[in-house]
Amino acid sequence: MKVLFFTAILLPLGFGLAATSAAHANSLPEGEAKPLVQQLCSSCHQSNRINQSSGYSRAGWQELISSMIDLSEHPSQALIISYLAEHFPAHNQLSPTLVAGNSVINFKEWLVPTLGQRARDPIQAADGSIWWAGQWANVIGRIDPKTGEMEEFALPAGAMPHTVTVDGTGNIWYTGNKNGTVGRFAPETGKITEYAMPDPAAKDPHSAIFDRHGRMWFTLQHSNQVGRLSPATGEIKLISMPTANSRPYGIKIDGNDNPWVACNGSNCLVKVDATTMAVQEYKLPDVKTKIRRLDFSSDGMVWYVNSSQGRLGQFNPVTGKSKEWPSPSGTQSHPYAIAVIDDIIWYNESGMRPDTLVRLDPKTEQFQSWPIPSGGIYAGIVRHMRPTAEGNLLIHQGSTNRIILVTISDEQ
């Protein structure tokens, strides 16, 4: 995929990237290649993301860029690489605090075919295949983990999928984050069925999950709503959050089949009654709390990432009490994704470079952490993680377009 991918496909979709680029123009130092870097890099992300990186050597910048965009035929490739290496060398200002331990894990990476898509949210289907959302390329993709074969499927114009999930019959569902839809993809036929939001204010379907009755629940972050779709009828019901600007983000199903929602804009967790869709809001003690995602352990405890405060939290739905632990890398670590596997808590510290995968054993309250690789470098963050049937973990590095399987071994 050549550099023309960005100007020919991404820009007409209305991301307002030109205005964003201008707003961050002064974040880059002067140099001959500055206009080129602004133009090319701002096609996918704000140029100040470069300042927020950990910096790289010339070889590191070359590898990082090659996983985002193909500059092999660009006449100024060497000039661009030299500019970045000179002005943004490697530094340790964002280095995480890594914690040693006895657990052993292994990372297996796949670089997806279409560069620049921000591959994310991998999930395992019943047949063992791995599916992901390629948000910026408007595709969903499938990996055969046994052969490494990958295939991508184009979605209806403007869908820009934020996530994928799988129903009980093997269909792949995605959330149309930019066109206010959710969609069903039938792998056997390639047929896509779109379901539009019944409310024009419901604009941004976000994260999604199925309950045990086959209903899909999903959040709409900026619309401040939660939705329920019944696939048998296509009916969608929407409810608004009790607190304005709660920004419902992650969503999981508890042991009673009720959805719980993480608030990325307020210090709350929200439980939705699966039958009546009545909402119960639980306020957490620290008003500065913002929660990206949550999950459950087998005892019914809610585990959440206090992203804004750099902490991992546990909430007891029976007593209403919460407990939090400082994440190893501190207040700026920005925990993001979370998954509970065999009552071990896994999450990442997205504010660090490299992004770290963190393990907590609640019985011992002992942490362990690892840097998450992206090829030969460390770049990007995990925005969602989900377990596999084998008890392993699926993560991603969106900025480098990698899907990653984390194989978890027993303690040695």
Keywords:
412 residues; mainly beta; Methylamine Dehydrogenase, Chain H; four-stranded antiparallel β-sheet; 28 strands; 11% helix; globular; disordered N terminus
**CATH topology-level name of the largest domain:** Methylamine Dehydrogenase, Chain H
Structural class: mainly beta
For the terminal residues, how far apart are their CA atoms? 43 Å
User: Would you identify the CATH H-level superfamily of the largest domain?
Assistant: YVTN repeat-like/Quinoprotein amine dehydrogenase
**Architecture (CATH level 2) name of the largest domain:** 7 Propeller
Q: Characterize the largest beta sheet: strand count, sense, and whether it forms a barrel.
A: 4 strands, antiparallel
Keywords: Signal
GO molecular function: electron transfer activity; heme binding
Organism: Rheinheimera salexigens
Protein name: Cytochrome C
Task: Give structural notes.
- It holds the Pfam family Vgb_lyase.
- It comes from Rheinheimera salexigens.
- Residues 1-25 form the signal peptide.
- By secondary structure, the protein is mainly beta.
- It folds into 2 domains: 4-87, no CATH class; 105-408, YVTN repeat-like/Quinoprotein amine dehydrogenase (Methylamine Dehydrogenase, Chain H, 7 Propeller).
- Helices cover 11% and strands 37% of the residues.
- The protein has 6 helices and 28 strands.
- The chain has helices spanning 4-10, 17-23, 34-41, 48-51, 58-66, 77-87, and strands at residues 105-111, 119-124, 130-134, 139-143, 150-154, 161-166, 172-176, 181-185, 192-196, 205-210, 216-220, 225-230, 235-240, 248-253, 259-263, 268-272, 279-283, 291-296, 302-306, 311-315, 322-326, 335-341, 344-349, 356-361, 366-371, 386-387, 393-397, 402-408.
- Strands 1-28-27-26 form a 4-stranded antiparallel beta sheet, with no helix packed on it. Strands 2-3-4-5 form a 4-stranded antiparallel beta sheet, with no helix packed on it. Strands 6-7-8-9 form a 4-stranded antiparallel beta sheet, with no helix packed on it.
- Strand 15 (259-263) and strand 16 (268-272) form a beta hairpin.
- It is globular and about 60 Å long.
